[in-house]
Every structure is written in structure tokens, then in C-alpha cells.
Amino acid sequence: MARYRVTFHQLRQDPFDYGSNDKYMVSRVFFSLEKDGKGLGDFSADLKQAVGTDDERGAIEVGPVRGYDGPFNQEGFSIAAKKYFRDLIGSKGAGIKAMARRHIRVRDNFFSKDSEFSF
Q1: Range of the domain at 85
Q2: How many domains is the chain partitioned into structurally?
Q3: Which residues face 116 on adjacent strands?
Q4: Main-chain phi, psi angles of 100, to 5 degrees
Q5: How far is the C-alpha of 107 from the C-alpha of 103, rounded, in Å?
Q6: How many Å apart are CA 71 and CA 15, to the nearest integer?
């Protein structure tokens, strides 16, 4: 089984231009990807959640890697992407602490932090 290493670099949370609307918040993670120690390049993927969802426990749908169409462990990537998102946005993250309240929506936040995961 192939081993993947993803290094997340940035997150852009809930901008209009990624498809966010009154029903769903769409965020995008930016990362570099390796397969079996070989660099595959820099990519992105979208994360989608319903407006009002708890950032720490609510459902987050992780989309496919944009620009990569080779074999991939989407389940492992999904777990890593959700953890990266929650580490930045959740109550222990660097995000605005008021965002944990469901009645406040702060749009188009940008976070830059490297974080590495293997799966």
C-alpha cells in the first residue's frame, strides 16, 4: 500500500468565491503532497460544512484533491484535512475565538501554518 505525506500550508475559510452561500461554508486547504517519498506537487482541496455547524464536532465534507488524478487514499487525506482545519479553527486554534459561537459567522479568513500528516 502506498504511503502518502501531506504538508498543509494554508487555509482560506468561507470566502464567496469558493462557493460559500447562506446554506454552506466552503473553505480550501493548500498543501504539498508526496507518495512513497516522491514529491507530487502542490495542490488544494475544498472542505464543505453546513452554516451553523460546530467546527469541532460537526460534519465536514472533504472534496477530492484538485489537480491530482492518480491513485489516492481519500479517507486518510480526509482525516488529516479535518484535523488541520479544526486545529486552526476550533477552540484551541488560532482563529477568532468568537467563531465558536454558532450565531456569529466571520467570512474569508486566511490562515498560514505548516502541518504535516502521513497516511
Answers
A1: 4-118
A2: 1
A3: 7
A4: -65, -20
A5: 13
A6: 30
Query: For position 63, what pLDDT does the model report?
Result: 97
Q: Stretch 2-29: mean pLDDT, rounded?
A: 92
Inter-CA distances, 95 with 3, 33, 76, 114, 115, Å: 31, 25, 24, 15, 16
Please check the confidence at residue 93 and state whether its pLDDT lies above 90.
no
- Helices marked H in the chain — which ranges? 74-89
pLDDT confidence of residue 107: 75
Q: How far apart are CA 73 and CA 50, in angstroms?
A: 25
pLDDT at 103 over 90: no
Which three cell numbers mark 82? 479535518
Residue in 54, 36, 47, 38 with CA at minimum distance from that of residue 10? 47
